[in-house]
Every structure is written in structure tokens, then in C-alpha cells.
Amino acid sequence: MEINSGDTAWVLISAALVMLMTPGLALFYGGMVRVKSVLNMMMMCFLALGVVSIIWVLYGYSLAFGPDSGAGLIGNFDFIGMANTVGEVEGTIPTLAFVMFQMTFGIITCALLAGAVADRIRTIAWIAVIVLWTTLVYIPLAHWTWGGGWIGNQLGALDFAGGTVVEINSGFSALALAIVVGQRIGFRRDPMRPHNLPIVLLGAGMLWFGWFGFNAGSALSAGDLAATAMINTQVCTAAAALAWIFVEKIRDGKPTTLGIASGAISGAVAITPSCGFVNPMGALLIGLAAGAICAWAVSLKYKLGYDDSLDVLGVHGIGGLVGMIGIGLVATTAVNDAGGNGLFAGGGFDLLNKQLIASFATMAYVFIVTWLIAMLIDKVIGFRVSPEAEVSGIDLDQHAESGYELTDTTSGAFAGVGQHGLSEYLQQEGRDEKHEDK
Amino acid sequence: MEINSGDTAWVLISAALVMLMTPGLALFYGGMVRVKSVLNMMMMCFLALGVVSIIWVLYGYSLAFGPDSGAGLIGNFDFIGMANTVGEVEGTIPTLAFVMFQMTFGIITCALLAGAVADRIRTIAWIAVIVLWTTLVYIPLAHWTWGGGWIGNQLGALDFAGGTVVEINSGFSALALAIVVGQRIGFRRDPMRPHNLPIVLLGAGMLWFGWFGFNAGSALSAGDLAATAMINTQVCTAAAALAWIFVEKIRDGKPTTLGIASGAISGAVAITPSCGFVNPMGALLIGLAAGAICAWAVSLKYKLGYDDSLDVLGVHGIGGLVGMIGIGLVATTAVNDAGGNGLFAGGGFDLLNKQLIASFATMAYVFIVTWLIAMLIDKVIGFRVSPEAEVSGIDLDQHAESGYELTDTTSGAFAGVGQHGLSEYLQQEGRDEKHEDK
Amino acid sequence: MEINSGDTAWVLISAALVMLMTPGLALFYGGMVRVKSVLNMMMMCFLALGVVSIIWVLYGYSLAFGPDSGAGLIGNFDFIGMANTVGEVEGTIPTLAFVMFQMTFGIITCALLAGAVADRIRTIAWIAVIVLWTTLVYIPLAHWTWGGGWIGNQLGALDFAGGTVVEINSGFSALALAIVVGQRIGFRRDPMRPHNLPIVLLGAGMLWFGWFGFNAGSALSAGDLAATAMINTQVCTAAAALAWIFVEKIRDGKPTTLGIASGAISGAVAITPSCGFVNPMGALLIGLAAGAICAWAVSLKYKLGYDDSLDVLGVHGIGGLVGMIGIGLVATTAVNDAGGNGLFAGGGFDLLNKQLIASFATMAYVFIVTWLIAMLIDKVIGFRVSPEAEVSGIDLDQHAESGYELTDTTSGAFAGVGQHGLSEYLQQEGRDEKHEDK
Amino acid sequence: MKLVTAIVRPFKMEDVKSALEQVGVQGLTVSEVSGFGRQGGHVEVYRGAEYVVNLVPKVKIEILAEDEDAARIVDALVDSARTDRIGDGKVWVVPVETVVRVRTGERGDDAL
Amino acid sequence: MKLVTAIVRPFKMEDVKSALEQVGVQGLTVSEVSGFGRQGGHVEVYRGAEYVVNLVPKVKIEILAEDEDAARIVDALVDSARTDRIGDGKVWVVPVETVVRVRTGERGDDAL
Amino acid sequence: MKLVTAIVRPFKMEDVKSALEQVGVQGLTVSEVSGFGRQGGHVEVYRGAEYVVNLVPKVKIEILAEDEDAARIVDALVDSARTDRIGDGKVWVVPVETVVRVRTGERGDDAL
Ligand SMILES: Nc1ncnc2c1ncn2[C@@H]1O[C@H](COP(=O)(O)OP(=O)(O)O)[C@@H](O)[C@H]1O
Ligand SMILES: Nc1ncnc2c1ncn2[C@@H]1O[C@H](COP(=O)(O)OP(=O)(O)O)[C@@H](O)[C@H]1O
Ligand SMILES: Nc1ncnc2c1ncn2[C@@H]1O[C@H](COP(=O)(O)OP(=O)(O)O)[C@@H](O)[C@H]1O
User: What separation in angstroms does the CA of F82 have from each of B169, C284, D51, D104?
Assistant: First the structure.
């Protein structure tokens, strides 16, 4: 087929939007942790942005979207190092646009995991998580659902933009990770309140914005399907935001800003698999369900004792499930011929069954493999920073930085350039100049 | 007509840009209020994002853009619950893309009102404002100007992207709201300085960015008209930003960052109705006028005693008027056949008159109806939080949250998990663990 | 040619993305300075946004992209005040879309210079820099490379999106400016730590996002070339981010968040000229080189004693050189017929020579002319604020504002409305009301 | 010489300041502190978990005063800061041996 | 009456608070301070330049106490704040002449 | 034992610190405070409304010292913090009854 400039423009800008979700997530998560670990959280997100990009062009795209190497489990090496992609066309867009778009999905999915291990893991261990988990968990799953693998091709379950690959995956991988890494010091004792809620809300806004690229971009063309996916995304996100704070109002007495932001994300999560298969009223229902259920799910960790610090399971895992099951209930071919009819649209239990199989297969696979990866990393590298470092702040320990320096009064007098490398020289210079100044 | 993929891509991304304006506004406004009410301000914006989205798909679009139900005042119920929209085409784009694009206008316009009632109103009352005002003020107005109603069709006044529907509307509605709600405690006595100007500037940047979607997206196609609207937006915004700080330099001695941000917004406001009807030199003139006039208008509230806290009237109401009148002066059909010639382009007073009629009709309608709505809400629900809550901070009172927790030193020792619901259980657990820790 | 709606949509949204880079830069730079000068830094960026926009439509576009007025050095006045541009077509897009897109390049390039003179220069002097430098440095350079001037047309050096015009230009102009302006008080003695690293990272994320418009938008069409430019941008940025923190880990012992952000920018800089001429593996190599080299280059200023405060030379000047030279090494016509083959692609030294000539010509021209402009401004207007103002904070001195007011406890009691203009009246009012309140 | 220190509610500062000016206080030093006492803290909620924050924001005022003025200053502070609700704060007085004004080197009462 | 002041490590506050409650302290005032002393600061790195920050975050606790309680409070503070590593902080006691509870105007021991 | 307290201009800290080191001070505690006094505040402008902020940022330094060192420390503070312009601040000395070093439990002069 020929390249269509409108479709290409849409996929390119969508890829840019999805890329922006990772800095958005860095703020959303970064604002939620305590002030002493904001930078580490943002660093984890930016590391995903860096490392996954490289993996993707080297071998990730090839294994995920290369021709199936047999059993519907993994692609082959045809596109290794971006071989055979330059100048090629995929549908109505350049292949490299598709590669780029899909890359950004791998990045954000990996970055989501950081929420489960806030405040406490060594950077080197996190890099190991990125590499191993992307290779052994994300890439196979992308192949299964979208790359010609068994979920998409044999089973025929529906997942428009990543209910399995992105949401259930990140949620249940996060659970495995949180279990292996263990609780933060002070979990269930200290408040650990978000240190900067305005940037949490900003991050939520950026994620909401980027999600239009994520969902509507997944149409891979700028037409009716993209428009449907987009309005569904808006409606479901809005409905879930309201449902979450409604639960809060009833349960806790007050609607919170963290709640409306969390609810919005839970709705965007739930509409991710379903946005191309339901109509706006279906999206509304899915949103109400997602917001209410996830608002309840995030308190499970306190009862069960795993410290999924920023609720990746509660929001993405559970929200993803709601969306996958929602397809089985409210999907309708009136919206998309390539979709199906859910239970309420007269399609019976057939589609619902497929959705459940895809969901459970994903849950099982990602939980087990991530748990194995995490155990391995813990043995070989070791996850946790020292207790002192964790208490006094991982930012200083891992990055020799602190997030804010909002008072400028005494920094000059009680600080000096250090002893290390270049600095030795500077100190010398600095001293001289200091005397000149007087 | 057939769907054009380039036009669709442009309208979809424009809708995303306009959606982003509301989180942008949350920062712009949130940074301007005092630290104790930043979250409430952001909450008001996010509530608009949530509630208006739902209203729009349920009945808002239908009443605004459904076939006129008679007198040019309101649409009908043809599109209720998004009936008859899925798979349809509007011009060269999918109908749902148009619905989505228009939805984002309703959201941001409503969110703008929050600026008039900063720091002091109950969340439940704000939700009532959103529902009633959107239904009784925004939707009719959208119908009048763009939906086949009397301003657009009978009168023939020009309003490209919302000088009446969005700007004059929000400004004069805000005035009515501010009058009914009353002054903040300490108005004209306490400084009430912006608590976080960097996020005000960030918000302004996001608004500027989103405004390209707002204005150039209103062309509903990706061609010459969109390009013209976009460069006009840029020029007018830039000119107004400079004009505002020029006034400040002369009057107050210093140009301020709040001033350059406010000026930019006033320029974007003024070019909103006019961007598709003037050339870049016309936009430059409108911008200079808007920046200078709005810089002066924002001090009116101190003289007249209404507490339009963040100057919705001064910036949007007055800026919108400048833009509407500007069309009557500098519009030229050289730019857009569908437009007209203003006074300076040899068109005489005809166009100017129409612009004035449309503006005054809007001012009168929205002020009166909003005033009635506000009185009703004040009687039935009550607007104000208690004076203690207002003084010690609405964030804690309405949302049980505080914006920032930038020192981590003592939060553990002097805080504990609470008594409520789940928390009872946690406390139990927490205590045990605490003792283990030692 | 006819307008193509897909290409137009892509260029319009790209222009919006590039515009957003300047607010992004305001955060990136604003977070890096001390708390007492954050607003001044953001103001400098917003002033560039305002003033350059006006210059561009008045005469900038005409001189840069108007028909060459003879020697390949400058355009003519054909498009003065946007004459002969409305309704015209350039390639497959409206001329005004092209004007708008190019305008945003001029803005951000000028804003970059602010990084060299952080914390210490008078606003009026900065405005003089914007006007003179844009006119005498940026505009000619844009003409040389893209507007039909000698670098693009005679020499035939390759520069896809601004390695010379934007990056080398800003870097070496910044050096000249830093030298003339002189060091900040306390340079090499006080730490001058970034006051808000989360907004630095947010700014970096916004720049990364905007850079897709910058680079892939420079294809001026939504097709294969844009897709290639985009994925190259992503890969190079990611690689440089990782290379920079790898250097840090080796040299300083810890990877920092400022490092990963800086590295990302250095990679985006290096791929700017090369993104349309290399394949993703070439981009990877350029990124690794850029990150490592720039990580080293930023410490030069301490050795050599010029206070390029936020490392415009080290990141943009050097990064731009890496990219220009990188073209001479790894460019391949397999990606772009209009490009060339670099040394490693079997093209010999020919292309490399051209790249070096273009780079050195740019370095020499911009350094000398900027130095002359700066000397002139320093003589006539004077750059520096008073030492007291610099020590106690330029925000208060130049803008009568302070960035943050995060504690609300005593502001009411110890502050009052002032003596100036309107305020006199307010104070009167305020006092009365104050007594009523009691 | 005495050092009078007061811990008061932030929102009473306006009144306290006026009262102090009326008894002739011309200088003072203010700092932000957190108080723990009989007054309960407030409750915050995050994702369904409820926390009690027991520290209450207070303002600390320090005033150097001549011996004979101290009592009057204490009275002014107590009167103006009072709201009659738990958490109004404390005022205390400590003897001071030397006071110097940095600018002039003046000592004792002249230093105020 | 005495004013007991302590400079302690922030992360020991949990223990200090418990210890104080056990010796009957019912109110106190906390502020954030920075300490300079034998304890070294930490190192931060920015774009390859390394800085030593010599100020260490500390918490200052002020407790008004009856004369006879002061010694016990000091002991409780010292015991609970100790980690045996450099930088544990100081505790000191200053005599106080008057204490008033703002809410009631009560003076002396009743004011606590 | 004495407690020497100084309120000084933030930007003089560099000089004050050097001066204190020269008279043998090895530890001190710093906090951020706001001062109100003869020195005028600064003016801020927001959307055309002008505000006078009468609180000036100051730094408070607290130094525990042996009786015989106190005078020298006061002199060092006054000399080094002086700029001869209004707002240079105050230095005062309060008697201290007990000082304990938390780490060791040492008391009195040994605790410094
Ligand atoms: N023993 C104490 N020592 C120092 N400060 C105290 C003491 N008791 C109370 N405070 C301070 O006084 C404030 C008010 O005390 P609180 O017991 O809440 O109310 P009240 O003084 O009205 O009885 C506290 O927040 C705290 O800052
Ligand atoms: N002479 C002093 N006056 C006031 N505060 C002091 C003094 N010496 C130390 N401090 C405070 O005590 C803290 C701990 O002192 P330091 O010398 O680091 O350790 P240690 O007390 O264990 O010997 C310092 O950070 C500072 O806040
Ligand atoms: N009576 C006082 N009690 C406590 N602090 C004071 C007093 N007077 C002044 N100060 C502090 O000293 C600072 C300088 O005082 P000011 O009157 O402005 O100048 P100067 O001391 O040079 O006459 C003030 O900002 C305040 O912090």
C-alpha cells in the first residue's frame, strides 16, 4: 500500500504523545513519593526511556513484530538493528513510524513498574530489571497480542491498545517485583504522603493527553476508528475520575485530588483495550466500573502486606482487567467490524471467554517470569539500598542530588567545592577568587 | 463528503491540545492562589474536565449542535447519548472527532470560571455550578454561534473560535459568580501573592500551546485557514504579552513574569474570535490593544469591590471584547472569503455593529443567567466554606490534603494512621510493626 | 503544487511542538538556577517568545527566506510584514505554515542564549540582545543554510534541522556573551545548585517531546523522511542520555538526574543536523559520542574561567559540532537521496570537509558578531545588575516578584498594600476594611 | 534585658503585630515552627488511607525587651493572640545578659 | 521553670517523642534547623562538579518544663536521641522567668 | 555556659562563619528566620497591585559557648556581620544551666 500523509501525521504525533507519557509518569509518580526520593523515581522513568529505546531498535522490534518464528510465541530476527525497515511501508504508514509508535509503548510499560519499588532500590538493579523484563516479558507479550502471536491470531481475543500487553502486564509484574523487593521501611507506620500534589496532577494531565496518542493512535490511521477511540478515552477517563472521588466521598468523607487523578488514570487504563470496540455509552459504563473498583483495589496492599508503593497493581492491573472484561460485556460491531459483540450486545459468552483467557494467561505468565527475574536480580546484584540510605533519602545515596534547594540563604557559607577529580582544582581557584572578592 | 485523513489528524490532535489546556489552566490558576488552596483550584479544573465530558456526550452536544429546534435558541435531542453520531461524517472529518473537539471547548470554558471563586467555595456547590451553568449558559451560547443559532445564522456576526461562546461568556459569568459568592476574607488587605510562579508560567505555556488547537483547529481542516489562524494566534499572543509588560514598566516600574504570562493569555483570548478573519498585521494590532487594555482592566476589581480573584473578567471578558470589536475593525476578506471587511478594511460599520450586538447579547444573557444560577445554588446548597476553613486553608477542609510536604524530617514521629475504616486495621498493624522495627 | 492536508497537519503540529520547547526551556533552565533568579530566567525565555515572533513577521522571515539579495548572504524585503505570503503555497503546505514553523526555530535559538547569562543581566539589556542578535546573527545564518544562501546552495553542506543555525550558533554566541557579561558573583566558590530538579526534568521531557516537531517536522511532509528523522531523534537522544550518566558513574561515582537530562538534550542536539541523513544505527553512534563528549565539555568553563552558567556551549555548541561531523562520518544516501555518503558509508572525505567548513564558518561568524553586539550593549546600556541585587536576587530587583511563597503563615500581618499609583487608594480601602473585619 | 518568646497561631499574627506596635515594640524576629500539644492535629487522606498529622503550624515570635517593658509585652501578646480555644500557644520570658546591635555595636537598652 | 532545648537527628524523632511522652511531656515546639559541627556534611554532584554541603538537617525541640522535671526530660532526650555516631546533637537548659498559657492567661507551672 | 544567639543578614554568613572559626567555634546551629525592624521590606508587584513585604529574610545562629569565650564570640559576630546599614541584626547572650552532648552524655564544657 501507499503511504497516506494524514495517517502518517497522526501516527507520528501519536508516537510523540506516548513518548511524553513517560516524563508525565515521572511527575505523576515523582510527586507521590516523599521529597527525599523524588529524583530517584524520575530517574527510573528516564532510564526506561533511555534503555528501552535502544533495546527496541537493536532487537526488541524484531522479536516482537518480526515474522512469527513458529509457535506464536516470539518473532524472528529479520529486523535486527532496524534491518529491512528503512523505506518500507506498514499498512498506510512508513514502517519506521510504526516502529517508533510501538517503541513508546514498551517504554511506558516498563516505566510503570517503577511505581512498585519506589524509594528503595539500587539504580543498577533497576537497569537490570529494564533489560531483563523488557526482553523476557514485554517483548513476548507484544508478539502474542499484536505481532502475530497466539492471543491475537489464534485465540482472537480483543485488545485495542494494550489491556494485556501494557496494563495487566505492568500491574501483575509490579506485584511480583514488590513482593521480592519487600516493604519500604516504615510501611503501614509512617504516612508517606505525596510531597508535591500539584506535579502529581500535572503528571496526570500529561498522561491523559498522551493517552489520546496511545489509544486513538492505535487505530494507525486518522479516520473514524481513531475518532471513536479518542472520544471513548475521554468519556471513560472522565467517568472513572468521578467514580473514584464518589467512592472517596462515601467512604472517607472527602473527595481528594489524588483521588481524581488516580481515577482518571484508572479509566484511561480500562478503556485502553476497549476504546476501539465500544461506543461512548459503553465507555461510560466501563469508566464508572473502573473508577469504583480501582478505588477499592488500592487498599488491598495494606491488608495483604505487599508494598506496591504507588499502586501499579491496583490501578493498572485491576483497571486493565476491568477493560478486558468490559469488552466481553459491551463491545459492539456497530463501532468496529473487526471487533465483536459482547454479552450485553447479544454476542453471548464467547467473546467474554476469550477475554478472560487472554487476561489470565497474561497474569500468570508475567507474574511468574517477573518473579523469577526479580529473584535472580536480588541474588546476583541485590535490590535494596542500605537502611540508612533509605531513611535519609535515596536521592542523595544513589544520585548525590537533592530535589529542591528552595532557600538560598546559607548555601554559600557552609558548602564548598569538593575534593574529587576536577574539583580539587576548582577548590584552589575558588579560594583565590574568594579572597579577591573581599 | 468523504473523510480526509489530514483534516481528521489535525482536528483530533487539536482536540487533544484543547483538552490539555484544562490541566494547563489548573497550573496557571493553581500557581496563582495561596499555597493553602492550590489543590482546591486544581480540583475545580479537573472536575470541569470530568463532569462536562459526561454532560457533553449525554445531552450537551445534542442541544448545542443538534438541528435547531425552532427559534435559533437551542438544538434538539437527535444526538442524545451520542445517538446518530457513530460512523457519521461532518464536513471532511468523522462526526465523533467534531463532537470530541467541541467537548473540549465546553470543558475549558467552564473551568475558567473557577478563577473567579478561588479559595472559598464548597466542592459540592462547584459541581452544581458546572452542571447548571454548562446546561443553561454554555450550551445555548454554543448553539447560537456555531450550532445553527441566531448569532451565527441570522445576525451573521463573526466568531471564529469562541470570542462570545468562550471568552466573553466566561468573563461575564465569572463576574456574576464573584458577586454572588463574595470576597475572600482579607481581600484588599492581604497580599495573596501567587504561591508558585514557575507553575503559573508553565501553565501559561501549556495554554499557549493548546491554543493552537483551539484556534487553528477551529478551521476543522488542515489547510490555509488553519495556518493563518495559527500564525495570527502566535503574533497576537506575543504582542499582547509585550504590551502588558510595557504597561507594567510604565505604571509600576518593573515588568513582571505574572504580567508577561497574563498578557500572553489576554492576547490569545483576543485573537480567538478573530484569528480566521485577519492577517498577521491585524493580529499584531489586536494583540497590542488586548495586552494594554487588559493590563488596565485587571485592577478594576479593587476599585469596584468584586473579588474576581484571578481576573477572569479582566482577561477573558475584556480580552474577548477586544477581539470581537477587533474583527469589526481589521477583518479582511483577503484572508477568508467567509469572513468580512472591518472598518479599516473598507467594510464600513456594518460588521462592527454585528460584532457589538453579538457581544452585548452574550454579556447580558450570561451575566443574568449565571447570576440566577448562583443565587439559587447559594440558597439551596450554600457557596462558602466556614471562615475558619477559609483562613486555615480550603485544601484541608474540602479535600483533606495539603499541596506540598517538602520537609520530611518529622512527619513520621508526629503523624499516625487514622481511626477511620480501613485505617483502624492499619494502625493496629502499624503499631506492631513499629515495635518490631526497634 | 497543491496543499496536502496530511503534510500541513504535520507541519502545523510540529510548529506547535517547537513553540512548546521555549516554555520547556524556561523550566529546564529555570529549575537549574538558584531560587532567587528562577523568574528572571523564565522571563528571558518568554521575552524571546514574544519579541522574536514580532521580528519574524515584520522582517525576519523576509530577510531569512526571501529571495537572495545577491551574494548568498541575506534575503530581500519581498515578504516584509508578511506581504505576499497569505494564501500562498510552499512545497505542499501553506506558506504561512512554513513561516510559523521557521519562526519557532528563531525563538528557541534565541532563548537558548539566556542560559549563558543566568542570574545577572538587566532585562532591558536582554531585550537588546534579542533584537540585535536575531537580526544580525540568526537571520543571516538561517538564510545561509536554508534560505537559499551559500552554505546550503553553494557549499552543499548538510544540515537537516539546524546544527549550524540553531546549535553551533547558540553555543558559540553564548560563549561570546558569557565572556562579555562576566562571571556570576561567587562563580567557582559557591555551589549554585539547581533549585528545583523535578522541573528541570519536566523541562527536559518537554524539550524531548518538542524536538520531534523540530527534527521530524523539518521534513516538511508526513512521510518516510519524517518517520526516519523521528526515530533517529529518539534513538540518539536515548543513547546520549545513557552515555552521559555512564561517564558520570565512572568519573563521579554516581549517575545524576541532571546528567541524564543533560545527556538527552546533548543527543537531541547532535541528531538535529543529522536526523534526515543517517539510519538508526548511525543515530545510536552519534548519540553515544554526543553524550560522552558533552559530559566532558561542560567542565571546561571551570578550567577556562568563562561563566557559561548553564552550559550552552558545552551542550549545544559541542553537541552541534558532534552532529555536523557525524554527518560527514555516517550519513548514507540509503536513507535520503538528497543527502550524501559519509566517510564510513564510503563517501570519502568530501562530505566531512563540507561539514567542517560550514561548522567553522558558523563558529567564527557568530562568535565575532555576537561579541561585537555584546560589547555595544554593555557600553550603551550596561549588562549587569548591581552586586547587591545579584546577591539578594535578580527576581526581586528586575521583576519585583519572588518565585515561591510556600508558607502562608505570616504574609498577611507583615505585608501591606503599597504606596504606588492605584495602591494608594487600595491601602486606604484596605485599612478601612481591616477595621471592619475586627 | 529580657527575651520574650511567644508561640502563637499563624492567623492571629495580624492582631499580635498591631498589639505589639501599640506597646512600642519596634523590632522582632519571626520563625515558622510546629507545635505539639493538647490541640489535635488534622486528618489527611491518601488513596483511602487516613493519617492524623499531629503537628500544628505555629509562629514563633522573639522580642528583645528592656526589663521594665517585658511584662507589658507579655500582656499584649497574651491578649492579642487569644482565641480561647485549645492551641492558642505559650509566652515565656528568659533573662538576657547582653544585647548588641550589630550595625553600631551599641549594647544593652540602646541596642533595641 | 526551665526551657529545655534539644538539637537531634530528624530520623530519631519517633523515639524521642515516645521517650518524652513516657516522662510526661505533653507539649513541645519543633522547628527545622541546620547543624554545623564535627559531623561531616554530604556530597552532591552537579554536571561533574562536586560540592560538599556542610550543613546537616537537624530538628530542634523546645520544651517548657517545671524545675523538677527538667533533669528527667534531659535524660530522656539524651537517651532516646543517641545513636553513638558523631552528629547526635546537643541538649541544653535555660532558666525561664515567666510562662503564660495564652488561652487562659495561667502562669507558671499551670501554664504547661 | 552561655548561649550566644545572632540574627544576621544571610549574605554575610560566609564572613561570619570564617570569623567564628577564627575564634575557635567548632559547632553551631543555623535556622532561617524573618526579621521585622527599622529596615524596610521590599516591594512586590502583582497584576498592578503593589505590596510591601515587611519581613526580611535573616539567619539565626545559635552557639553554645564556655563563659570565657562568649565575649569573644559576640565580638567576632558583631564585627563580621556588620555592613553599617540598617538591618544588620542583633546578637544576644543568655545564661545556660546545663549542656549535654547527646552522643556521649558529656556535660558542661566537655559537651561542646
Ligand atoms: N511544654 C511545652 N513546651 C514548649 N511548647 C509548648 C509546650 N506545650 C505547648 N507548647 C506549644 O504551645 C502550643 C499550644 O499548646 P496546646 O497544648 O495545643 O494548647 P494550649 O496552650 O491552648 O493548652 C503547642 O502547639 C506548642 O507549640
Ligand atoms: N557549640 C554549638 N552550639 C550550638 N549547636 C551546636 C554546637 N555544636 C554542635 N551543635 C549542634 O549539634 C549538632 C551535632 O554536633 P556535632 O559536632 O556534629 O556532633 P556531636 O555533638 O555528636 O559531637 C550540630 O549539627 C549542631 O546542630
Ligand atoms: N527587639 C527585637 N527583638 C528581636 N529581634 C529584633 C528586635 N529588633 C530587631 N530585631 C531583629 O534584628 C533585625 C534588624 O533590625 P533592624 O531594626 O531592621 O536594624 P538594626 O538592628 O540595624 O537597627 C530585624 O530584622 C529583626 O530580625
Answer: 58, 58, 47, 8
Q: In sequence order, what are the beta bridge partners of F30?
A: E34, F61
Contacts of C405 in chain B (CB under 8 A): 34-35, 193-196
- Secondary structure (3-state) at F31: strand
* DSSP of B363-428: HHHHHHHHHHHHHHHHHHT--BPPHHHHHH-HIIIIIS--SB----SSTTTTEEE-SSTHHHHHHH
pLDDT of residue C358: 97
Class of domain F2-111: alpha beta
Structural domain spans, chain F: 2-111
- Give every strand in the sheet of B415-417, ordered side by side: B415-417, D49-53, D42-46
Q: Cα–chain-centroid distance for residue A130?
A: 12
pLDDT at D13 over 60: yes
Q: Is the pLDDT of residue A55 over 90?
A: yes
Which one is predicted more confidently, E32 or A407? E32
pLDDT tens figures, C229-252: 999 999 999 999 999 999 999 999
What the block records as the C-alpha cell of B373 is 444560577
Percentage of chain B beyond pLDDT 90 is 89
CATH topology for C5-226+346-392? Ammonium transporter fold (1.10.3430)
| pLDDT tens sequence across A295-316 | 999 989 999 999 999 999 999 9
CB contact under 8 A, D30 and C412: no
ipTM: 0.96
Q: Which residue of B has its CA nearest to C40?
A: B257
Which stretch of DSSP H or E encloses residue C329? helix C318-330
Distance from C-alpha of C379 to C-alpha of C381, rounded to nearest angstrom: 6
Q: Pocket of ligand 2, candidates F5, F17, F25, F29: which has the most ligand atoms within 8 Å of its Cβ, to mutate? A: F29
Specify the residue for cell string 485491576: A318
Q: Are C50 and C57 in contact (CB under 8 A)?
A: no
Distance CA D47, CA A255 (A): 10
User: What pLDDT digit, counting tens, does each position of B34-89 carry?
Assistant: 999 999 999 999 999 999 999 999 999 999 999 999 889 999 999 999 999 999 99
Query: Computed over its alpha carbons, how large is the radius of gyration of chain F?
Result: 17
**Cβ neighbours of D33 in E, within 8 Å:** 29-31
Of B308, B309, B79, B69, nearest to B193 by C-alpha is B309
Of D38, D77, D92, the CB nearest to E96: D92
The pLDDT confidence band at residue A436, using thresholds 50, 70 and 90, is very low
> Minimum-distance ligand to the CA of E88?
2
Domain positions in chain A: 5-226+346-392, 406-438
> Which residue intervals of B134-185 are DSSP H helices?
139-146, 169-181
E43: confidence class by pLDDT, cuts 50, 70, 90: confident
